[in-house]
Amino acid sequence: MTTRVRFAPSPTGDLHVGGLRTALYNVLFARKTGGRFILRIEDTDRERNVPGAVETIVRILEICGLDPDEGPHLGGDYAPYIQSERLEHYRRFAQQLLESGHAYPCFCTEEQLKIMREEQRSRGFVQGSDHLCRGLNDEQARERMLSERHVLRLSVPLDGDIVHNDLIWGDLTFPLTDIDDQVLVKSDGFPTYHLANVVDDHLMRISHVIRGEEWLPSVPKHLLLYRFLGWEPPQFAHLPLILNEKRQKLSKREGTGSVMAWLERGILPQALVNYVTLLGWHASDDRDFFAFADLVEAFDLTRVGKAGAVFDPVKLEWLSGEHIKSLTPEELAFHARPFLKGMEFEALLPERLQAPLEAVRQGLHRLDELPAKLLVFAHERPVPDEEARAWLASEAAAKALPPVLEAWRKMPQADAEALLGAVRDVGKATGIKGKDLWMPLRAALTGRVGGPELKVVLAHLGAEEVMNRLVTQIQGQGE
Ligand code: GLU
């Protein structure tokens, strides 16, 4: 049987790092086992739905190279893949549960439930239904259902255990007395997550449910539903929590938790995918750097741990730097372009962009560092910073710059190599050496004392422009 796994986000906003990891482990498992990866949108909690969230999720999966095989935007044999378009399935099985006595209508109002919960809490009971409505006879219940607002609840057996074997957590036993009579259908007629999720996993022939640890407490309810509906449950793997540096659950509100925010800051998607895979799993040889194909090769669900994984932004940035190093010049230009919006580089042909990019690639971790690093290549004249100003005002500058300008004036068409050769000759002739020779020149041409190789800057700007810059600086000093 082919494996079938799914990523089943609720469209409640931006995709969280934890969501990306769930999607990723599902994809890796599917690719590794030759199975199918399905995207299903769980939007039955209507108040929490955020417009545009589905499109964002689809886009992020695409950017990260985690394309589903079936999904709302793709169709497939088990369509539709959006729960709000599948309501008749949930109605049908809710009816079946009602008729077989595994679900019952509950007419309690919010107010009554609140009082009951307080009372239960004071007596140290599990919070949930007090089975008040469970005792109603069928006839009474059916009659009230016609006219009164009600929900449908799961009729949880009053004693016994549910034994669950998790691919990550091993054997777990849940006493049924700890489990409340879960609402399956809300008073608006929409199913809750629990009913819709189980029905769809069954109908879509999901073989493995790989999802976050926060769903582990729901497993006994889900297994009861499988049992009551006469279905074989899938296998389950619950992924460990992702924690922040304070070892608290990484929340959706924290900036570091947002996938989009990282992509917008110029962390390479392949680096994010690489890093997020390491949150809960590590390779048998403890390697850190992985291209996607190597992840598929190395990934093993049974090596996923139970301990919470700490999200470390420093390591993510380091890995992003490693991935940036491994890009071809063409790939670097492709990834860089969106970060050059509004700069003159945006208009450059790829081949003209490559040399400046190559010159700043070393030490780059995020692509949003590019505008600042590329500034030395801009035709707009740089304003010298403090260190550059100090060099420009130095005695060394007064000695070195005029003879360089004089030499350059005699070679207006020269290329970068020839221009640099002339500087070296000036050094030899005047005895000005090292920093005293090069720093004033760099400061005059780029307005900075650090930065990429001067040769690349000269090649990019051209002889005329560099000469003009030198003239401006020398004249500026003379004023
Ligand atoms: N809709 C649930 C979520 O938002 C899916 C949980 C599951 O995978 O069963 O995470």
Report what the structure shows.
With 479 residues, the chain is mostly helical. The protein has four domains: 4-83 and 242-310, HUPs (Rossmann fold), CATH 3.40.50.620; 86-239, 3-Layer(aba) Sandwich (Rossmann fold); 329-377; 386-478, Arc Repressor Mutant, subunit A (Orthogonal Bundle). Helix content is 46%, strand content 9%. It is built from 20 helices and eleven strands. It has helices at residues 17-33, 53-63, 87-99, 110-122, 138-147, 193-203, 219-229, 259-264, 269-277, 292-298, 313-326, 329-336, 350-361, 370-374, 386-392, 395-409, 416-430, 434-446, 454-461, 463-478, and strands spanning 4-7, 36-39, 103-106, 151-154, 161-166, 170-175, 183-185, 208-212, 235-239, 242-243, 309-310. The strands form five sheets. Strands 3-4-7 form a three-stranded antiparallel β-sheet. It has a two-stranded parallel ribbon with strand order 1-2. Strand 1, helix 1 (17-33) and strand 2 (36-39) form a beta-alpha-beta unit. Helix 15 (386-392) packs across helix 18. The N and C termini lie far apart (83 Å). The model has no long low-confidence stretch (mean pLDDT 93). It binds glutamic acid. Residues 8-10, 42, 193, 197, 211, 215 line the site of glutamic acid.
